[in-house]
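Note to self: user wants both folds in one dump. Writing first protein now.
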Amino acid sequence: MPRPDRWPDPAHLDHHRDAYRVLGLGDGLAGGAVSEVPRLSSPMVIRILCLCLACGLAAAEPVVTRIMAVGDSITQGGKTFATYRIPLAAKLQAAGVRFVFVGSQKTDTPQGVLWHEGYGGKNAEYLATILEDRLKANPANVLMLQAGHNHFIEEKPVAGIVAAHREMIATARRLNPKAIVFVAQVIPSGKLPKYSYIPDLNAALAGLVKELHRPGQPVYLVDLATGFEPAKDTIADLVHPNAQGAEKIAQRWSEALIKVLK
């Protein structure tokens, strides 16, 4: 019988030998060459399947959370005032949260483009009318609602704002039953008496969250009001946050999000 041009490499044989040992098949080698593979018993098959499954899980990509921030100009940001979304993105990244902001509106930031659904001058009732289309175009796992401004005390707006939040949560649930919803108690304003309804609104929003939160369909309350001082944390209009105010808002949002998403 002619001699083969190349004998099996010893390292190659060791590789096969180790693999057979892991699977409980012995060395699987005889006379310096790979032997015929023995018939596999049921326990051996199960062991192989478990190893394959473990390899598949190890190779799976971590889940990226899609976050939609919904609100008014405080969410949108502007040329003369800061938006909390920029420091919030940095805090989430630093905490190791895998996420992407989604939406139809964009802001160019040091972290790249941050998408959102923030609209200057718009109120919660308006946001409730557009949210379904926005979520269909940009599905989200997490919904951040921060919408309580752009009304006057004379309108007695609390009931309508709460109803709009209820509608937005229902919309999110209809499109994604497993969506996680965060509802903000909005920052106080020094522009009075226009925004003197905000304390009552925040109390009503807390009641709404308590009513709607349930296992498997969570709704979380985020207190942005406590510790926020309009005289120190806003620009001259006493409504929109300055850099310090945006940092405070971002800190509260990040604490709530990281607690749930990590």
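First done. Writing the second protein, which came from a different request thread.
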Amino acid sequence: MLTRLILLLLTAAGLFTATTAEAQARGAPRGQAEVCDSDSIEWAGPAFANSISWQRMEWTPFGPVEYGWETYLPLIQHELGTDCAPNSPVFALKLAEFQFGHGLPPTGWFDAATFQTFRGLWQERRPFIMARVREEPCPEPPPLYQLGYLVESEEHADRLTRLLRRDVLDAYRRLVAAARAEVPEVANDPELLQIFSGFRDPEADAARCAAAGNCDGLRRAVCSPHRTGTAVDLFVGQLAGLGVDNTSAASRLHMTRTPTYRWLVKNAGRFGFTPYVYEPWHWEWISPTGGYAGQ
């Protein structure tokens, strides 16, 4: 009885409804706020459970213990086709529909098994990674004539040696132009969306792996998509005192809360880029043929 009373109070307070301002901030058309409190009776229980777990659930999605799943919320919302908050009945309903469609119990509750299904889908959209799953040979880097230099304004940390495949560089420039036109934060900060890693020479990458001892397939891969000139590491913000590619839970959460990252989740696909869930800064370009460039 007490739980039902709390749920009714939360609903009455509007905590289960996306306001017009919130919807616009997430990219919804002006004046068209998404209604997130429909089916409030049937899905209030799962919504309440999600309202607790999204910041408090103790789990190990990538090895180390993490608390909550807010870091992955933008990608999950995009996959579900909703901007509704995780404590809303509509989010729970959409999650249950996803679970049912993928052979999971349609509880509407977020759990580790559901996340692994999301993660599998996101990984399958990375052709380079799927080629590794099929145990295909690691590809040779592209010939130098296929690579183009970034200009100074596109490079982060004042390094002028970064390269990308020319077709990927063109797509990146279209993406940045769109972001600057559509996201005030990006328009006002030229550092955002600058590249801090593009094409990486395989021999140099291997030497760095050996020196750092961190080629564990999570933080760095022995056969990296950066060798193809189709992967980019974009500056999306950073937590004070930590690096632009710091993988701590606090760092990644900070990045995924930024308008820049949230815009990328919704719009990078327009320009051929797909994300790597563990690294908010890492995006890979998919060629029009459906593979990574060079195939």
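Dump finished. Worth passing along: The chain is about 40% helix and 10% strand.
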